[in-house]
Amino acid sequence: MSKFPTFDTTKSRAMFEQATKVIPGGIYGHLGPAEGQWIPVNRWPSFAEKAQGSYFWDVDGNKYIDYMCAYGPNVLGYNDPDVDAAALAQLKLGNCTTAPGKVMVECAETLVDTVACADWAFFCKNGSDTTTLATMAARAHTHKKKIIFLKYYYHGDFPWAQKIDYPGITPEDVANNIICPWFDLDALQKAYDDNNGDIAGLIAQPYDHGNFKDNEVASKEYWQAVRKWCDDHGVVLIIDDVRAGFRLDLAGSDHFYGFKADLICFCKALANGYNMSALCGGEHMKATVSGITYTGSYWMSSVPFAACIACINKMKALDTPTMFRRLGKMVTDGFKAAGAEHGFDLRVSGEPALFYLRIANDDNLMLHQEWVAECVNRGLFITSHHNHFINASLTEEDIKKSIEIAEDAFSVVAKNHPELRG
Amino acid sequence: MTDQRTLAYINMYAVLGTLENLCELDEKAKEIISTIEKPISVAFDVKNGPSATLTFSKNGCRMDDGVNANCDIKIPVASCEKFNGIIDGKVTPIPTKGITKVNFLLKTFTALTDRLTEVMRPSAEALEDPDFFRLNTLCTFYTVSVAISQIGNQDAIGQFSASNIVDGDIQIGIADTVYATIRVKDNHLITIKQASDKPRAIMEFNTLELANALFAGTVNSIDHVGNGNIIIRGLISMVDNVNRILDRVALYLA
Q: Angle at CA A201, nearest 5°, toward A198 and A204?
């Protein structure tokens, strides 16, 4: 007998149907049913009514402990009072103005003071804006063409960052992309040689946190070797820290792994949900970036800058990376133990602050998808395909309840699969 | 952009291969083959392209890969372009073996391929008949299922999608109606016209109508994943990559 009742998602389904009439796909992208892996769709919430701290409520009134954190932006907790107060104060002073608000400079100074490799900051809105600027900067700096990507990459959805078989992408869009495996320096050298040295940059996430697969953390030795290889070959090293940024190390994930990127891209955890992104880099890249034509209507809006400063200061005060590591370990240890009680081999991979889960009793993720659906439909919002996120408002009491729901969901799946008992 | 060699593989295995299913599902096709007194085989051998042997009997049709040395009629084709011309009706096939059985080609085989064209390229009015609609959808399902493997193996962009598919079975189907398996081994795809015993990924359309609309390109699969009319399970990256290949099927079969 399940201890946690399943949720009714009738209004969610109705609202989703309503959405499909006026929005392509209803909810497009990573928050939607296809990319978001709502398997099956009727167990998932579609739209939120409200959010607070580590929780959100759907349109049916169901309350979820949220381990996706809007896929990253919620780093301190939804509606964090300090960040919201700073944002509101700035809103009263001005937001999107002809002369950028002076807070833009303060925000850049905060980033320079926080991020180890940063001597400057260039602000945009989304992660894609920064990864695009970073690759342009690499090309402008080196006067070379090709960019090396590491397999299972995701650097946003702009055409250059997609793949040749994606709808709307032409071979020319991705003609200068070279994909190499992770943790293989020989492959980098081969790519360099095969392309007669025409390599402008190497773009990578700080470790392999690809979707649909166990995540593989990097070693300091690996990154130091890559750093040396880039230096030896005049290749600009770009770290896409959009997903992991500020969750492993407030000084940047490159700092966490013991090296310095030439360029580093931030977005999600930068301003606790206020929309901004930033490309930071070393002094040697500043003049190049100054010369690139690149701007956007809202990129210098002041409210997110104020939120960013407050967010970074609070993350420093709380030492969120240490907190996230501890909480991530606590959650995943609890999930693993709960799974083991019911005969499930739950594998945990990646960094604890961004843990990835997979039930390994089968080879096709179907048991895992069933378990995730049972969790979500009882108020524990996790995913079956993507790493998770911790936020600073998560309490040990929340984690205790999360583990109880996870255990309950395991019991349901175990009951539905008597064959697993052997 | 389409590629003539890929199209030839599709025309051979997906289009002509659907004669197997037509002869099983369609009363008119059954009537045509009922006149066959003893099994007769026709082999197509395309230079630098596909080769296969179709064997017809009054009980049905079977396609085997390669040229059967004992085939009754052999039709060598000089190029993929010429073979595609034969399928389009713009090039006349000339057998080098089985001249005396050319009557089968001119009558029975032509009648079957004409019927296949009628079923696969129907008028809007014809589709209003529920039985014909069902026949069209099922035959298209088999054609598309086989075309997916051919595109994944031959087309340059399809090969990229295939290169991202791990080993195992992807089962595609129309709920409680028809199933096929795309079996992947070392990024090579083979279509088996039946359900998988142990799929690693599943994509299932809930109605014939939805499947028909998807094959006709009038609806998008992402929309229908969202409203639950397409069920996906398992290693979704496998489904995702098959969907990318599926996107190219319409390009070739248009």
A: 140
Kindly state the tokens that stand for B3: 């590629």
pLDDT of residue B92: 87
Domains of chain B, each with CATH number or no CATH: 4-120 (3.30.1050.10), 129-253 (3.30.1050.10)
pLDDT tens digits in sequence order for chain B, 254 residues long: 789 999 999 999 999 999 999 999 999 999 999 999 999 999 999 999 999 999 999 999 999 999 999 999 999 999 999 999 999 989 988 888 877 788 899 999 999 999 999 999 999 999 999 999 999 999 999 999 999 999 999 999 999 999 999 999 999 999 999 999 999 999 999 999 999 999 999 999 999 999 999 988 888 888 899 999 999 999 999 999 999 999 999 899 87
Q: Which residues of chain A have pLDDT under 50?
A: none
Interface of A with B in 360-419 (CB under 8 A): 363-366, 369, 385
Annotate A268-311 with DSSP letters as a single string: GGGTTTSS-EEEEE-HHHHHHHHTS----TTTT-HHHHHHHHHH
Task: Enumerate domains of chain A plus CATH numbers.
Answer: 10-78+320-421 (3.90.1150.10), 81-318 (3.40.640.10)
Query: At A122, which helix (H) or strand (E)?
Result: strand A120-124
- The single-letter code of the amino acid at A79 is N
Instruction: Specify the length of chain A in residues.
Output: 422
The token duo for A153 is 């990459």
Q: Which residues have C-beta within 8 Å of that of residue B45, sequence separation ≥ 6?
A: B51, B67, B74, B75, B76, B77
Residue B240's contacts (CB-CB under 8 Å, 6 or more residues apart) are: none
Amino acid of residue A247:
R
User: Contact, A111 vs A278, CB < 8 A?
Assistant: yes
State the best of B148, B181, B225 to mutate against chain A, taking most chain A CBs within 10 Å: B225
pLDDT the model gives residue A95: 98
Q: Is 0.90 topped by the overall pTM? A: yes
Cβ pair A39:B237 closer than 8 A: no
Asked if the bond preceding A5 is cis, omega within 30° of 0, the reply is no
- How many Å apart are CA A65 and CA B30, to the nearest integer? 60
**A165: which chain B residues are within 8 Å (Cβ-Cβ)?**
157-158, 160-161, 241, 244-245, 247-248
Size of interface A-B (CB pairs under 8 A): 68
Which DSSP category does B94 fall into?
-
Whether B205 and B230 have beta carbons less than 8 Å apart is answered as yes
Chain A contact probe: residue of B169, B206, B220, B232 with most A CBs at under 10 A: B232
Q: Is A167 on the interface with B (CB under 8 A)?
A: yes
Q: Dihedral sign, CA of A390, A392, A393, A398?
A: positive
Q: Can you read off the two tokens belonging to residue B222? A: 């992402």
Q: Which chain A residue shows the shortest CA-CA distance from B200?
A: A364
User: Are residues A353 and A390 in contact, defined by beta-carbon separation less than 8 angstroms?
Assistant: yes
CB atoms under 10 Å from CB of A334, counted, come to 17
Residue of A20, A39, A167 with shortest CB distance to B227? A20
Buried b or exposed e, range A383-419, using 16+ CB within 10 angstroms: bbbbbbbbbbbbeeebbeebbbbbbbbbbbbbeebee
The two counts, helices (H) then strands (E), for chain A are 12, 13
Beta strand pairing call for A380-381 and A63-66? parallel
Is A364 in contact with B234 (Cβ distance < 8 A)?
A: yes
